[in-house]
Amino acid sequence: MADLRFLETIAADGQEGRASPVPDGEALDAYSRVVVGVAELLSPSVANLQVWRRVGGPRRQEGGGSAVAVTADGFLLTSAHVVSGTDRGIATLVDGRELDIEIVGADPLSDLAVIRAGARDLTAATLGDASRLRVGQLVVAIGNPLGFAGSVTAGVVSALGRSFPTRSGSVTRLVENVIQTDAALHPGNSGGALADSSGRVVGINTAVVGPGFGQGLGLAVPINEAARRIIASLMREGRVRRAFLGIAGGPRPLPPRVAEAVGRPRGVEVVEVVPASPAAHAGLRAEDLILELNGEPVSGMDDVQRLMDGSAIGHRVSVLVYRDGRRRTVEITPTELTG
Question: Cys-Cys with 191: which of 59, 66, 128, 319 at CB 3.0–4.6 Å?
Fold first, then answer.
């Protein structure tokens, strides 16, 4: 991967004249070798999904998408919206095999789902860490847009830290730290892999933005610590349990004195407290700045969501907040989030 390291050196420099000029042919050749290498490594792990949904009685509506094998013994990862309402389906691999699938578990609030295919010899992809991504980094998307199986597109990480809303019943939630890429994505790419230059899956493609297709902006759910927990829970229990505090909030810069005291620049501002929620009963208020949960620092709602997993349900949580010019602790006992 010497060519890739050279390209990354040029990209990381960011200033003209810092790196020796490279002939266009050589640069294109190096870039192409990276994309080809990722495609050859990862394509055997990406399946084309065809699913059938009931639409009023015996009629069925066909849908589709993509999925990524994560274990050799049949587990695949996809988008929850791809398998929503599905009662059966088929996964087609690049080697031509067609495998019946069953839904192991789906989590609409993260737009992730785990399915299982009838095979014990899948080529499992390696999951990466989206928290290491940088804007401008090369990424490769592999999926089945518009039914064209095994399609490969490449681009860069356009932005990090995006979010988009998801819904399950009456519950809404923001998926945080979403990856924005300019790799071309179309219907059918959902559930497919977004990979880094080493072929590690750093995201699951989930959305196309814009009134039409190919608008140059696609989104992917990041593979990070929170996503790994969700995947493990879906594989193990077929569902994801979450603790419910009853707040809406977002990141906010801390006052300089507070930032110096806690050793970080941001906390989470409480924008809204749900009436009759655990947070309301505990006395949490709008405009409170949350600094820590049970001693763990929080800088954004993704930190809050990561810490409020099933293990926190019914257990007292110490919330360190900054209010009216001083720090204080609020004790909250979360309930289980239900739709």
Answer: 66
* Segment 190-240, tens digit of pLDDT: 999 999 999 999 999 986 555 444 456 789 999 998 899 999 999 999 999
Backbone angles phi, psi at 334, to 5 degrees: -65, 150
CATH topology of domain 1-240: Thrombin, subunit H (2.40.10)
Domain parsing of the chain, residue ranges? 1-240, 243-336
Residues 45, 69 contacting (CB under 8 angstroms): yes
The catalytically annotated residue of 43, 79, 110, 190 is: 190
Is 309 one of the annotated active-site residues of the chain?
A: no
Active site residue 81: yes
Q: Which of 66, 81, 110, 158 is catalytic?
A: 81
Given CATH 2.30.42.10, say whether it is the number of domain 243-336. yes
Closest to 78 measured CA to CA, from 40, 41, 117: 117
